[in-house]
Amino acid sequence: MSQPQRPAQVDVDGLLDDPETRVIVCCGSGGVGKTTTAAALAVRAAERGRKAVVLTIDPARRLAQALGLRELGNTPKRVEPEGFEPAGELNAMMLDMRRTFDDMVLTHAGEERAQQILSNPFYQTISTSFSGTQEYMAMEKLGQLSASGEWDLIVVDTPPSRSALDFLDAPQRLSTVLDGRLIKMLSSPAKAGGRGLRKIVGAGFGIFAKAVSTIIGGQLLNDAARFVQAFDSTFGGFRERAEHTYRLLRSPGTAFLVVAAPEPDALREAAYFVERLAGESMPLTGLVANRTHPVVAEVSGTRATAVADELESAETAPLAAGVLRVHADRVAIAEREKRMLARFTRAHPEVSLVGVPALPSDVHDLAGLREIGRRLAGE
């Protein structure tokens, strides 16, 4: 019986060194180490001569602390801790969803109209809590960074989500809602004294208006109508911006890395994401199997357990017996991870793979990020 073919290895340093690589997107389910992976890639790229910026979505402050910064803001900040002298340049920022949305309004609207939008209660609601807003604004910020031409490499830490589809769907979903028929209906009373909406729904207008007001509140309905009137006439091109983002994501200079822990749920999510990326013709570079537990010593778990039993029976070396049992447990974990990754590889033989051995403790400083970078590169 032939052995299953081993997956190709992701050449991380080759990816980082290639001047054609302009964007790296780290994606996957929550809790698998996307933020740390993205930061480690940016650190290593800077060390190897790239002018890199990492865009993180993680609101926790641990990344800023690891980079030696008090905090991260909505614009890139140079990372220059003592003793860190990369051949290139490292910058970091954390997405502020509301600020990014506000900046879009200020950029595309005149001062008076921008203030009408920014002060509108309906806008204040959707800019912070509308479904898909965070994902859309992450891609909006990516578009801004790319358009500036200031960076050799942009590394994106995508928002954590339970569904692998959220990240890819959000720009189109949000633009469809804001450009869609319901919004046009809400804007028609402001544009035509209510006649537009009455024309759409006919004789049932009163019932319709009463029902909508009951569901979302009469004041919110009025706020929404005023918001759309100001917003739509200023820059109703959300769909065009989403399409521009998709073109950027599909371009040859973009590389997607799906990050997953060697656990069933994370690998199922990774498989779903891999299939969706393929369906969208997105350039997938490979899978990062994060926090693996490879075994160095060539002693099987069965043999280690047997020797530990003998030592404990003879009561001669309890410490050695304990070490052997820890090794046996480690072998069991490593074998389980190998089986799960092999199952993933059989289902997706075209996907390259890089395993990143777990560190003894959580990453909390630049040294830890550099070590993750070395492990990503197979050193």
Short characterization:
InterPro entries: ArsA/GET3_ATPase-like, ATPase_ArsA/GET3, P-loop_NTPase. With 379 residues, this protein is α/β, with parallel strands linked by helices.
Short descriptors:
Rossmann fold, ArsA family ATPase, 8 strands, alpha/beta, 379 residues, eight-stranded mixed beta sheet, P-loop_NTPase, ArsA/GET3_ATPase-like, ATPase_ArsA/GET3, elongated
Task: Please tell me about this protein's structure.
Pfam families: ArsA_ATPase. This is ArsA family ATPase. It comes from Saccharopolyspora halophila. Residues 21-292 form the ArsA/GET3 Anion-transporting ATPase-like domain. InterPro entries: ArsA/GET3_ATPase-like, ATPase_ArsA/GET3, P-loop_NTPase. By secondary structure, this protein is an alpha/beta fold. The chain has 2 domains: 12-171 and 236-296 and 343-376, P-loop containing nucleotide triphosphate hydrolases (Rossmann fold); 301-336. 58% of the residues lie in helices and 12% in strands. It is built from 17 helices and 8 strands. Strands 3-4-2-5-1-6-7-8 form an 8-stranded mixed β-sheet, with helices on both faces. Helix 14 (264-279) links the parallel strand 6 and strand 7. Helix 4 (97-108) packs antiparallel against helix 5 (111-118). The chain starts with 11 loop residues before the first helix and ends with a helix. The relative contact order is 0.16. Mean pLDDT is 78; it is low at 189-217.
